[in-house]
Amino acid sequence: MKILVVDDFSTMRRIIKNLLRDLGFTNTQEADDGSTALPMLQSGDFDFLVTDWNMPGMTGIELLKHVREDERLKTLPVLMVTAEAKRDQIVAAAQAGVNGYVIKPFTAAVLKEKIEKIFERVDG
Amino acid sequence: MAALELDVSNGEFEKLFGEKAKELITRLENNDVAGAVGLIQDLQKVRDENLYQEIGRLTRALHESIKNFKLDSNIQGAGSEIDEAHEGLAYVVDMTAKAANKTMDMVDAALPLSEGISTEAVDIKRDWQRFLKKELAPAEFRDLTKRISVFLDNTESNTKKLNGNLNDILLAQDFQDLTGQVIQKITTMVTDVESRLVNLVSMAGHVDQMTGIQHDIAEADIDEVDPTKGVGPQINAEEKEDVASNQDDVDDLLSSLGF
Prior knowledge:
Chain A is an alpha/beta fold. Helices cover 47% and strands 17% of the residues of chain A.
């Protein structure tokens, strides 16, 4: 399972990577915004994308839209982990085809639950 | 900060204006046209003099404000208060990042130690229970005593390291005090700037009144933010209707959308 973690703050990337490692996912890579992440996704064989929303350059929601428009990436599971909590934004993310939405600050248990739920649905 | 004398509207202008206006009507009623024209000229003069005074005050207040905030870096050479605020906030970001990284470094170093203690303890406990049930051969027992001895030594030194890491994590929280002080200073500065701006606006209001200028401010107020750009963390989320205040709210909203 190869995972791409996208967040503009290196501390948050580190926290998410550590939590993923605890859950048994050790093959993770990092990007600091959507415009760096998209080419990585297009050229690498990632199985899962965890992205923040508010980032300089390309935002997470734009990245999600690009992923869904890309023929090879459109089925990639995407988990949004963000401080963006407006109802309109959550609805917009759902409409853009997000697979899970976790708001910051979050706990390890919540992250675990959402990731498991995504893979249950993807595998099932 | 020097006390401001910005809000000087002693009503002299309005009083004088009112008196002259009444006199004007009386003169017109008495067909004293020449006198009335003279009065209109007086009125104009009163207005002009007051206008110059108000503009003078406004200019002085603006100048004072610029001086106090050292906004014009040409004057002082030193950094302005705005520059200081920028530097202060950059310092906060830097300090919080360092504290977070230091804490994570310590946790990363501590986890293998505590995992090691736990794994060894499980191993030893298994053989210890076999010993209690007298299932252990003498050779195995000698091996067990050696392992217990090593385990005790390792535990002693590893817990010492763990204590050190925990203490370092504790110390890394000192950023809260330091960044708190910087943020409080910036908050005071922003409040200061705000009250000075309010004063300036009120002075400019007098000038507007005398010149009869009316601003169309309705349009400028509308500044809708594009939500796809992201707006950052919500403060006091519980009090806002259009905001999910916790993960349960998010889950409820998503499940109502068929997730």
